[in-house]
Design goal:
alpha/beta, Purple Acid Phosphatase, chain A, domain 2, 5-stranded mixed β-sheet, binds fe (ii) ion, Metallophosphoesterase family protein, Metallo-depent_PP-like
C-alpha cells in the first residue's frame, strides 16, 4: 500500500501541485490555510484526495474567524494573512475546516495510526521536536504503530519503543532551511521523507500581486526562497 502524508500546506497551491507520487490513500495532518495566497484550491484538493484529515491550529483560527496580534516573525505573518484568508474562504470551506477532527485513529495495511496536528497531549498547538524524552510520555497508552504529526514544519521520523513518530514536514512553508516542498510516503511499511522542487516564483508572484503589506510580502518571499525566516 502507498500512503501519502501531507501537512502544513498553508495556502501554497503551487507547492501542493508538485506532489505527483501515486498513492492508494492520503492522510492530511492539518494547516491548510494562512500565510499562502491560495487556500481554496488547496482545500478542494484535500477534500477530494485525503481520506482522513485532522484540524491544525491555523484551520481552527481561520474557520472561527479569530484575528491574532503579532509583531514579529511568523506571528506577524499570521496576523496579517489571517484576515486575507478569512476574506477568501467561502462559508462551505470554513465549515469543512471546522469539521476536521482533532485526532484520528485508523488501521491501514495492518498498522495502527494516530493522526494529530501537533501532539497527542495538545493536538493543535504543542511544538513536538524529534526528542525521545519529549515523546515517550506522550505515547504512553496509545498502542499504535505510527503517530503522524505536522506543525513544526520540520520533517523527521523517530522510533520510540514500538511506535514510530512521523512528521512529513511542510508542503507549503518549510522552515528547516530547505525551501522545497516536503511530504512523506509510506510504501509497504517503508517510510520515505521526500522533497520536491516547485514553482515558488509563481507563489511569490501571487503574493506580490495581493493585498499584504510590503514587509509581509518580503518576509514570505524570504521563507519561500530560503526555507527559513531571519527577517523580523
Ligand atoms: Fe503550520
Amino acid at each position: 500500500m502507498r500512503i501519502l502524508l501531507v501537512s502544513d500546506i498553508h495556502g501554497n497551491w503551487q507547492a501542493l501541485q508538485a506532489v505527483q507520487d501515486e498513492f492508494d490513500i492520503c492522510l492530511f495532518l492539518g494547516d491548510l490555510v494562512d500565510y499562502g495566497p491560495e487556500p481554496s484550491p488547496c482545500i478542494e484538493w484535500v477534500r477530494k484526495n485525503a481520506s482522513y484529515g485532522v484540524r491544525g491550529n491555523h484551520d481552527h483560527g481561520a474557520a472561527q474567524r479569530i484575528n491574532t496580534m503579532g509583531n514579529v516573525g511568523f506571528r506577524y505573518l499570521t496576523s496579517v494573512t489571517r484576515p486575507m484568508t478569512i476574506e477568501n474562504l467561502t462559508e462551505d470551506e470554513r465549515g469543512y475546516l471546522s469539521s476536521l477532527p482533532l485526532t484520528q485513529f485508523l488501521t491501514l495495511d495492518g498498522k495502527r495510526f494516530m493522526l494529530c496536528h501537533a501532539s497527542p497531549w495538545d493536538p493543535m498547538d504543542e511544538y513536538a521536536p524529534p526528542d525521545l524524552n519529549f515523546w515517550a510520555p506522550r505515547l504512553e497508552g496509545l498502542n499504535v504503530d505510527y503517530v503522524c504529526v505536522g506543525h513544526t514544519h520540520i520533517p523527521y521520523t523517530l522510533k520510540v519503543g514500538g511506535t514510530t513518530v512521523i512528521n512529513p514536514g511542510s508542503i507549503g512553508l518549510p522552515r528547516d532551511g530547505d525551501p522545497r516542498c516536503a511530504y512523506a510516503m509510506i510504501i509497504d511499511h517503508d517510510i520515505q521523507l521526500k522533497r520536491v522542487d516547485y514553482a515558488a516564483h509563481l507563489t511569490m508572484q501571487t503574493v506580490h500581486d495581493g493585498p499584504l503589506p510590503p514587509m509581509a510580502k518580503n518576509m514570505l518571499e524570504e521563507v519561500y526562497t530560503t526555507g527559513k525566516l531571519k527577517m523580523r
